[in-house]
Design brief:
- The complex is a heterodimer of chains A (80) and B (145).
- By secondary structure, chain A is α+β, with helices and mostly antiparallel strands.
- Chain A has one domain (2-74): Beta-grasp domain (Ubiquitin-like (UB roll)), CATH 3.10.20.30.
- Helix content of chain A is 22%, strand content 31%.
- The longest helix of chain A has 12 residues, at 30-41.
- The radius of gyration of chain A is 11 Å and the shape is globular.
- Chain B has 145 residues and is α+β, with helices and mostly antiparallel strands.
- Chain B has a single domain (2-139), classed as Molybdopterin biosynthesis MoaE subunit (Aldehyde Oxidoreductase, domain 3), CATH 3.90.1170.
- Chain B is built from 3 helices and 9 strands.
- The chains are: A alpha+beta (80), B alpha+beta (145).
- Chain A binds chain B through residues 9-11, 14, 48-49, 51, 53, 56-58, 72, 74-80, and chain B through 31, 47-50, 52-53, 56-57, 78, 89-90, 110, 113-122, 132-136, 138, 144-145.
Chain lengths: 80, 145
């Protein structure tokens, strides 16, 4: 198990009801974290248009996560 | 440079900051808050950004634009917070020796910013509802300006 701090933004924060939480997860990749938090909060957003960052750096969904990492989950962006 | 701002964008001041005797052209894009989206009457928008990555990714976009369309100077400001109809939500200015680089760099910067920076907008409608804009179609550049 790894201790992962997960941060939610925009619609993800509203679904989760919190801006961030620290979870004990069996997760190898950023995608694993996304899937487990999705189940936890009942979100049906696929990850296709979402982005992920690890420790303040943009990452890929197959990027590994380590104990103590902060994973930031970004729903589809809409700047401009 | 790119900046995330909680206060209104002073476009005249930003243009002045790009002044350069070597510049023969200047191009700016302003994104404004529109009163309608996909059939809904919009009353105001609420923007949210994750600033550390928005700024870092924005600087990358500016560097990519400069590599492809060598310009003299470029700046970008994106608003966060609650914006009313007609307010400027994003401003991009590019100064270059010739107009072609300014036009092309400006277009590249706004297109990339819309799809890459962690910035979200929530529309507040006249009927009291609200919704986050799902900008997946923004990948088809130009649709959701």
């Amino acid at each position: 198990m790894k201790t992962i701090k997960v941060c939610y933004f925009a619609m993800f924060r509203e679904h989760a009801g919190v801006a961030e939480e620290t979870l004990m997860l069996e997760a190898a990749t950023a995608h694993d974290v996304f899937e487990q938090t999705r189940l936890r909060h009942g979100s049906d957003e696929p990850n296709g248009h979402c982005k992920v960052a690890i420790n303040d750096h943009m990452a890929d969904w197959d990027s590994p996560v380590n104990d103590g990492d902060t994973v930031l989950l970004f729903p589809p962006v809409a700047g401009g | 440079m790119i900046e995330i701002s909680e206060s209104p964008i002073d476009t005249a001041e930003l243009q002045r900051l790009l002044t350069d005797p070597a510049a023969g052209g200047y191009c700016a894009f302003e994104g404004w808050v529109r009163n309608e989206n996909e059939g809904h009457v919009v009353e105001r928008l609420e923007y949210e950004a994750y600033e550390p990555i928005a700024v870092a990714e924005g600087e990358k976009v500016l560097a990519e634009a400069k590599a492809q369309f060598p310009y003299l100077a470029a700046r970008c400001v994106h608003r966060v917070g609650v914006l009313e109809i007609g307010e400027c939500a994003v401003w991009i200015g590019v100064a270059s020796a010739h107009r072609d680089e300014a036009f092309k760099a400006c277009r590249y910067i706004i297109d990339e910013i819309k799809v890459r920076l962690p910035i979200w907008k929530k529309e507040h409608y006249a009927n009291g509802d609200s919704g986050w804009v799902n900008c997946e179609r923004c990948a088809q550049h130009g649709i959701a300006d």
